[in-house]
Amino acid sequence: MDAVVWTGTSLEHTQDVRVRSPGPGEVTVRIDAAGLCHSDVNALDGLIDQPVPVVLGHEACGVVIDRGPGVKVHIGQKVVLSTLRSCGACRACQAGAPTCCRDGQPAADPVFTRRGEPVEQFVRVGAFARQTVVHERQVVAVPTSVPDIVCALLGCAVLTGFGAVWSRAAVREGDAVLVVGAGGIGLAAVHAAALAGASRVLVVDRNPRKQALAHKLGATDFQLVDTAADVVEAARGLEPRGFDATFECVGRPDLLKAAIDVLAWGGRAVIVGLPAASTPLTFGMRDLFHDKALLGCRMGSVDPHEFVPKLAERYLAGELLLDPLVTAVAPLRQIGELIDDLRSGRLDRGVVDLTGGTRTLSRRDAA
Length: 367
Ligand SMILES: [Zn+2]
Ligand SMILES: [Zn+2]
Known about the structure:
- The protein contains 10 helices and 20 strands.
- It is of the alpha/beta class.
- It folds into 2 domains: 3-141 and 322-363, Quinone Oxidoreductase, Chain A, domain 1, CATH 3.90.180.10; 161-298, NAD(P)-binding Rossmann-like Domain (Rossmann fold, 3-Layer(aba) Sandwich).
- The strands form 4 sheets. Strands 4, 6, 7, 10, 11, 18, 19 and 20 form an 8-stranded mixed β-sheet that branches. A 6-stranded parallel β-sheet has the order 14-13-12-15-16-17, sandwiched between helices. The chain has a 4-stranded mixed β-sheet with strand order 3-8-9-5, with no helix packed on it.
- Helix 4 crosses helix 5 (184-195).
- The longest helix is centred in the last third of the chain and has 13 residues, at 304-316.
- The chain binds zinc ion (ZN) (2 copies).
- One zinc ion is lined by residues 86-87, 89-90, 92-93, 101, 103.
């Protein structure tokens, strides 16, 4: 089948990857669209400890085409994929917090093989392939009417950005919000903050191309910054008493420290961007004294089975602006060009169209 394999030295578009049949509790999903996330590029760059060869990709949607014993999801159901292979039964899962589940079991056998050799499945999904096998808990049913390229984003960028704002930081009406870094997740956070009724949404980024889209999604202020000191200066200039919620969406400790430095009393700083595993952070313990909090956040800290259908419903009702997040769509064979676009700052979100045909890379104006 059509797939892209990262060998550790090259990204190979190939037809010789095979996918195994679904086992008990598992489904085969035909992937129709998959977003390109910074985490995929981090794996290419060696910032994530990822064995190779591997099928990357984890932000995706598709249709269930086969199922193993004991599965309730119907064949033909449109689904959004999730990296959370949660158990569904432990205390965390029962409490609606599958991001804290420690009991999810990895797939028993390799899902992918190439010329008889196993190929890894990135974060239990492996979406840059026409088909994948995942656990039933990793698919969330969504209405067919949500377009594929938007639907894919519900699996990571939109889920994470909205979850960080609505759930993890619980942004309320009237809050002042700072978003550091306007990538796909940061821009989703901007829109979530605006919809939550934030009185101010300041976006800082070093890429001037981000300004128009940030405003379209609800940012009240946009400032170009280069250093962490610039972030502090921009934030203090607008809100001398600080921000109620700040979101570091880049994954740099100096920017996270800036996001802590500009918190209001009672403010929450959320770590959304992922640095390399051993990255240290230094800040003054007393900096959190005034009831401030520093919060980790995994996949938006939400239950995708609750949250994704809610997002889909509000998108279909015309409340969520998600289409403008997608800057380019490309077939799998042109994924290298999407990656180049992401690295050079030309992409908000790039989406791979796996439905085949003669489509070629199309870019659209972000604004
Ligand atoms: Zn992602
Ligand atoms: Zn569990």
